């Protein structure tokens, strides 16, 4: 087997139907959406049709969808605009957020624009909701934003969005969630969820890179983060990337049309992978809640194999040489030599073996998993000996 791609949490293979839709758009829909002539009006209509389609799948108004360059911009836009335009002076987050959130809130804290507090995590890396409520209750008069991701991108833990949102409503706090790992993989009825902002990125569900959106519950009082033209109803300047937006639309439509079938298939792959590792490699451990399908996403598993840190790093290298793509964690931190900051935060000194993240998609096959399992077993045994 030449290559096996199991790093879908970093990015996914584009769906052929998405490529086809984008190709058609680039050929026949090249006008600037801000132009008033027929070419521009056609491009504008395509953008607005995409916006309406996406909004309908999430059960919200199209006015609540703001197209961005991806999840990082959407996260930064929500957090920074909440501070600048909504009077937020305190942010509650966690230390295992994606760096699009973590670096943003820490920057605002360093600039003395907010008071930053971190909610406690339990022994598996899940948010302590009791502590969250105590933090919300201790400063009832301050304008607070809670920023917590729906699904952790390294260990897969799922946050109860409704429970957190209801706590935020109880204490009149805003709620922002990075849903980059969940939209396109889970049903999301935003009319029923008490969230004010969510961030989405197309390339996590077989769409193109460089496009995503921010859901904004209420646009009142928000000002643009990027200044220029009046695009996106004056909330995000810059000529819309029409072909990318069409790709985003097509990808999310496919994802939700086939959600039941695809999720059942990927769940079966994850179960098979975990069961096989447990039977083939003594001492294997699944980190966070990634071994529990009721509390963790079906799209990834974080595995620790009984090896030292240096041996684990060599294993990643050897897996790559054998054509197997996986990771230690977030692709944004791939150059770091300190391992997963998420696992370090959750387990600290109790982290006896580094973790490796394997993430699956509808294009993953059981035959590929058999090859990976066999390779992992061979490498683990050779290191043990």
Number of helical elements: 12
- Helical residues, percent: 40-55%
Q: What best-fitting shape do the alpha-carbon axes yield?
A: globular
Distance between the termini: 26 Å
How many beta strands in the DSSP annotation?
A: 12
Proportion of strand residues: 5-15%
Question: Ranges with pLDDT <50 over ≥5 residues?
Answer: none
Overall pLDDT level: 94
Supply Rg: 21 Å
Strand order of the largest sheet: 2-8-7-6-5-3-4
Summarize the helix and strand pattern as letters: EHHEHEHEHEHEEEHHHEEHEHEH
Supply the helix-strand structural class: alpha/beta
The largest pleated sheet is described as: 7 strands, mixed
What does it look like?
The protein has 385 residues and is α/β, with parallel strands linked by helices. The protein is built from twelve helices and twelve strands. The chain has helices at residues 16-28, 38-58, 71-85, 99-110, 129-138, 161-170, 231-234, 242-257, 259-280, 309-321, 341-347, 366-384, and strands at residues 4-5, 65-68, 90-93, 115-118, 144-147, 174-178, 197-201, 212-216, 285-286, 300-304, 324-325, 355-359. It has a seven-stranded mixed beta sheet, with helices on both faces. A three-stranded antiparallel beta sheet has the order 9-10-12, with helices on one face. Helix 4 links the parallel strand 3 (90-93) and strand 4. Helix 1 packs antiparallel against helix 8 (242-257), helix 5 packs parallel to helix 6 and helix 10 (309-321) packs across helix 12.
């Amino acid at each position: 087997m030449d290559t096996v791609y199991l790093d879908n949490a970093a990015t996914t293979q584009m769906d052929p139907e998405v490529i086809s839709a984008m190709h058609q758009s680039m050929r026949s829909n090249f006008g600037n959406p801000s132009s008033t002539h027929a070419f521009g009006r056609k491009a504008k209509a395509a953008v607005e049709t995409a916006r309406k389609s996406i909004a309908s799948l999430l059960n919200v108004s199209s006015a609540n969808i703001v197209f961005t360059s991806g999840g990082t911009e959407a996260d930064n836009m929500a957090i920074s605009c909440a501070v600048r335009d909504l009077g937020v002076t305190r942010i509650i987050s966690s230390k295992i957020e994606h760096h699009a959130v973590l670096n943003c809130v820490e920057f605002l804290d360093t600039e003395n624009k907010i008071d930053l507090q971190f909610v406690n995590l339990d022994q598996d890396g899940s948010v302590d909701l009791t502590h969250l409520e105590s933090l919300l209750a201790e400063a009832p008069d301050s304008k607070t934003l809670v920023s917590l991701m729906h699904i952790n991108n390294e260990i897969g833990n799922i946050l109860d969005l409704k429970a957190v949102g209801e706590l935020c409503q109880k204490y009149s706090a805003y709620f922002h969630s990075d849903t980059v790992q969940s939209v396109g993989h889970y049903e999301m009825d935003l009319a029923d969820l008490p969230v004010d902002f969510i961030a989405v990125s197309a390339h996590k569900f077989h769409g193109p890179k460089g496009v995503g959106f921010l859901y904004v519950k209420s646009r009142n009082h928000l000002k643009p983060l990027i200044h220029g033209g009046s695009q996106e109803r004056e909330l995000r300047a810059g000529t819309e990337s029409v072909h990318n937006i069409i790709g985003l639309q097509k990808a999310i439509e496919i994802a939700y049309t086939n959600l039941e079938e695809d999720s059942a298939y990927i769940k079966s792959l994850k179960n098979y992978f975990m069961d096989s590792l447990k039977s083939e490699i003594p001492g294997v451990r699944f980190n966070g809640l990634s071994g529990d399908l009721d509390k963790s996403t079906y799209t990834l598993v974080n595995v620790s194999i009984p090896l030292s840190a240096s041996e684990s790093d060599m294993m990643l290298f050897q897996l790559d040489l054998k054509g197997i793509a996986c990771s230690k964690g977030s692709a944004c931190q791939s150059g770091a030599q300190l391992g997963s900051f998420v696992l370090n935060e959750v387990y600290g000194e109790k982290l006896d073996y580094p973790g490796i993240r394997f993430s699956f998609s509808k294009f993953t096959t059981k035959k590929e998993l058999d090859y990976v399992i066999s390779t992992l077993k061979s490498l683990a045994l050779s290191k043990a000996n």
